[in-house]
Fold this protein.
Amino acid sequence: TKYLPGSESINLWTAALKSRGLWAHVMMSSGNEGLTAVHTIRNMIISVSLLAAAEAALIAELINLLTDPVRLARIEEFAESDPISNGDSFMSASTKVALALGDVFLSFLIFAQCVRIGVHLGFMFRVVPEHLNTSIPLRDATIVLTQRVSLYFALGLRFLYAFVPLAFYMTLGSIALVISTVILLFALLLLDVIPAGPSRALLRQTEQD
């Protein structure tokens, strides 16, 4: 994928989806790899469950904040020092907290769906290799669900990342929201788009040696 003139980059979204689909096919094509696939899915479920547990605690704290008039009043005081709104905030404190709560809750639901599909995949990866020729629809479904798990995991993380600008908005105002959003988008660009040129040059150098 080209993102800059004359340069080629690897998009982790596309690479992850394609590699997960190929990985699922390889795991099911070999009868000895079913257990490896199950262990990999189990590790993914554990990782996502830990993130969801942390989000559950955060959701509980945001609900407490949303129902505490004293703490909401403090957020309103923070808005008074915002040079953009000049004390007249675009949103009330309760709306800001509710927006952050909705963002985290949506990420939690996506992670829950990721775990749900992962549990099904654990059974599918164990069964399909034993009946590879007679379970073609199930094999295709396993590949699609493996890619869907990767997509859900990526979306859940990004909604969790979005909480950071919203937290700055609650506490420091609109300028902090704008600055943190720009920094977050730039950081995601650096993390999700990897230049392929240096890796290819190193590979060519290794082949020549």
User: Anything to note?
Assistant: The beta strands are 9-11, 193-195. Residues 136-172 form the longest helix (37 residues).
